[in-house]
């Protein structure tokens, strides 16, 4: 996009600033400052009626006028927890399982008791996960945020720490394809 925008600009023009986060390019053209915005902002009917231009400063001003100033985040931990994706995991004697991975909170004695009480069952257990890193799941117990890390005692489990959910899904699908291939070939060998 930047190259396309530059192709419309005379060569003797100086670029004052380029803010890629909001798609704004400011230029100095013969003592005038020109702003070029390449984002397609969603404009509502009310915005059109109030003649709000689709530029970040006016959109911000309109939003503050209509909805009020943004509220400060009082409890950062709770805020981050609320942003995470809720998932339905299960708890068993091995720990917390979700999507083929096993997690354990080393310093949560209540979790250890719950694991023992489940016996051979797998009991539903609500946790949240940050899809940018499958290395941990989070839950709240006694008004405290608890982080359960991948269980290092389960072979091959800890090596997935730091992977995104997408990367883990790709690996899990590849594993399943290999297992299906082996099962298919194993059956063929038995039939001979």
Oligomer type: single chain
Poorly predicted tracts of residues: 20-29
Tally of extended strands? 9
* Distance between the first and last residues' Cα: 61 Å
- Based on CA inertia axes, which overall geometry fits? flat
Strand % is 25-35%
Number of helices, where a helix is a run of at least 4 consecutive DSSP H or I residues: 6
Helical/strand content category = alpha+beta
Order of adjacent strands in the largest pleated sheet: 4-5-6-9-8-7
Task: Please give the largest β-sheet.
Answer: 6 strands, antiparallel, barrel
Mean pLDDT: 80
CA-atom Rg in angstroms: 26 Å
Output the helix-strand order.
Answer: HEEEHHHEEEHEEEH
The amount of helix comes to 25-40%
If you had to describe this structure to a student in words, what would you say it looks like?
This protein has six helices and nine strands. With 192 residues, it is of the alpha+beta class. The protein is flat, with a radius of gyration of 26 Å.
Which secondary structure elements does this structure contain, and how are they paired or packed?
Layout lengths: L1 H6 L6 E6 L4 E6 L2 E6 L7 H5 L6 H12 L8 H8 L1 E8 L2 E4 L2 E4 L4 H10 L4 E7 L6 E6 L2 E7 L14 H27 L1
Antiparallel strand pairs: 1-2, 2-3, 4-5, 4-7, 5-6, 6-9, 7-8, 8-9
Q: Which keywords apply here?
A:
192 residues, flat, six-stranded antiparallel barrel, three-stranded antiparallel β-sheet, alpha+beta
